[in-house]
Specification:
alpha+beta
């Protein structure tokens, strides 16, 4: 994830199997473009895991991505709530999709 965003952006592990990317000075079109690029990269490159015996296994991965942008009334909590709602919408659509929370009416 870190190598797929601008150096000024912040990537953090949020909770179980969730990551947050905070993008400064970015509009909704740029955010959507990055979300779609991350989604594509996760689908293209398999996860390679080294076993205890030194053997390697590869696993195909998917990504359900919910994204949003900062609104005038937001604070950190409201932003994360909207992002999580977008993620739940993505998962309810069968997963492995990118969802714009605001476009789905989440405010």
């Amino acid at each position: 994830i870190r190598h797929s965003v601008w150096h000024r952006d912040i990537c953090v592990y949020y909770e179980e199997a969730k990551f947050v990317v905070i993008m400064n000075d970015t509009n909704d079109i740029e955010v959507k473009t990055v979300a779609e690029r991350l989604h594509e990269l996760v689908n293209i490159y398999p996860l390679t895991v080294c076993g205890t015996n030194g053997s390697y296994s590869q696993y195909e991965c998917t990504a359900s991505i919910g994204f949003t942008t900062l609104l005038a009334h937001d604070n950190a909590e409201s932003l994360l709530v909207r992002m999580n709602k977008g993620l739940r919408i993505a998962q309810s659509r069968g997963g492995n999709v990118v969802v714009d929370a605001e476009a789905c009416g989440v405010t």
